[in-house]
């Protein structure tokens, strides 16, 4: 459930950043690159924060 919340927040963040860059008349290539970098960082952070801890041996 936590991963889903992180994903929803990430999608909203990417949408807001893309909208701001389009409004600022940034080239679409740079918008795509920035959104991909944000998506990659967001997925890595979501996985690291929501993964289950390994049980002790």
Number of domains: 1
Termini separation (Å)? 27 Å
Order of helices and strands: HH
Give a short account of the largest sheet: none
> pLDDT average, as an integer?
90
Strand content: under 5%
Radius of gyration over C-alpha positions, nearest whole angstrom = 15 Å
List how many beta strands DSSP finds.
0
User: Helix share of residues?
Assistant: over 70%
Shape: elongated
Provide the low-confidence segments as ranges.
none
Task: Chart the SSEs and their pairings.
Elements: H1 2-23, H2 28-50
Short overview:
The chain has helices spanning 2-23, 28-50.
What does this structure look like?
The protein is mostly helical. It has one domain (2-50). The chain is built from 2 helices and no strands. α1 (2-23) packs antiparallel against α2 (28-50). The longest helix is centred in the C-terminal third of the chain and has 23 residues, at 28-50. It starts with a helix and ends in a 7-residue tail after the last helix. 0% of the residues are buried.
Distinctive features:
about 55 residues, mainly alpha, elongated
């Amino acid at each position: 459930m936590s991963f889903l919340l992180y994903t929803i927040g990430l999608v909203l963040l990417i949408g807001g950043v893309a909208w701001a860059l389009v409004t600022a008349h940034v080239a679409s290539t740079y918008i795509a690159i920035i959104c991909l970098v944000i998506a990659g960082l967001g997925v890595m952070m979501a996985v690291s924060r929501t993964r289950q801890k390994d049980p002790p041996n």
